[in-house]
Amino acid sequence: MTALVRTDSETLLSILEETWTSFVEADSVLLPLIDPPDHYDWTAAVEVDGAWTAVILLSVDHAVARAVTAAMLAVPEPEVVEDDMPDALGELVNVVGGAVKSLMPGPSSLGLPLVARGRLSVAAAPVEAGRAEILWSGQPVRVVVRVPFTEPEEAVS
Amino acid sequence: MHALIIDDSRTMRSILARTLAGLGFTTDEAVHGQDALDRLESGAEPDLCLIDWNMPVMDGYTFLTRVRRDDRWRQITLMMVTTESEHGQIVRALAAGAHEYLIKPFTPDALAEKLQLLGLTATEVPA
Questions:
Q1: Do the chains contact at A106 and B10, CB–CB below 8 Å?
Q2: Set of chain A residues whose Cβ sits within 8 Å of the Cβ of B60
Q3: Residue B124: which pLDDT band, with cuts at 50, 70 and 90?
Q4: Which residues contact A156 (CB under 8 A, 6 or more apart)?
Q5: Closest residue by Cα to residue B52 from A91, A20, A44, A57
Q6: Distance CA A144, CA B107 (A)
């Protein structure tokens, strides 16, 4: 059985910072967000399967999707087309998911990322095991770790 | 120097291509392992392959083992560039013939350092 291994928000924030400064903006500043929105325009997800099973979800609004895509492709924001955004968001959640996986019991493997407008259904992983709500460039970004089981419980930081 | 970037993400191929261009490389891109293998079979002669692990059609590890089995491609330097960071996977890739292993996320400096260690560049990453 896969244990519920919780990921604290500071660890997730640190992973996001490293991902953002490496691939989005070298001098990115990410801050904890006190009052996160209920809804996001885009959700990207990647599954981890093996000794530790989970789904890692990254949610952003359209403005953030456009901004990170422009930054990662090194093009001006007006040149970004919507078709480019799922690939950029998929790569970000893939990197974040890989970093989360590296802190967990192994061996396990990453799936291919899935990106959708709005919410993604993760019925197979109903239990939330970690969450970070952050502010980047004045815009909210959410990362959630969901797992299928609830016991026994451990904490990873 | 010429590099073949093998990654299913156009975004990541773009990031790697820009970094390599700054180090004086010319680049081509393949969207998965089979695409890369087809390019080699068609006569492509890269000095370096940067290989993602998780890709559709053919993953990077399979590509790595296929290339290492074939003497025609013995001179190509192979570097995994992947989110897969478990010790067992790194050991597996190196044992199968990868020369280096770079974990995402990485900085341009980290890629430059790996290439320098491999003797493929002496160029500093431009600021």
A1: no
A2: none
A3: low
A4: A5, A6, A7, A8, A11, A103, A104
A5: A91
A6: 25
Of B14, B55, B85, the CB nearest to A102: B85
Rounded to a whole number of angstroms, the CA Rg of chain B reads: 13
For residue B54, the SS3 value is coil
What residues of A are in contact with residue B15 (Cβ under 8 Å)?
A: 23, 72
| CA dist B100 → A71, B13, B56, B83 (Å) | 27, 18, 22, 14
Distance CA B54, CA B6 (A): 10
Q: What are the two backbone dihedrals, phi and then psi, of residue A76, each rounded to the nearest 5 degrees?
A: -65, 145
> For A94, which residue in chain B has the nearest alpha carbon?
B83
What confidence score (pLDDT) does residue A156 get?
57
Q: Which residue has the tokens 């480019």?
A: A84
User: Within chain A, which residues score under 50 in pLDDT?
Assistant: 1-2
Q: CA A67 to CA A73: how far, in whole Å?
A: 10
Other Cβ atoms within 10 Å of B53 Cβ, number: 24
The predicted-structure confidence for B65-120, as pLDDT tens digits, reads as follows: 999 999 999 999 999 999 998 999 999 999 999 999 999 999 999 999 999 999 99
Q: What is the pLDDT of residue A9?
A: 86
Q: Does the pLDDT of residue B39 top 90, yes or no?
A: yes
B85 Cβ under 8 Å from any chain A Cβ: yes
Q: Which pLDDT score, from 0 to 100, does residue A151 have?
A: 57
**Which pTM value belongs to this model?**
0.91
| Among the partner residues A18, A107, A112, nearest to B56 by beta-carbon distance | A112
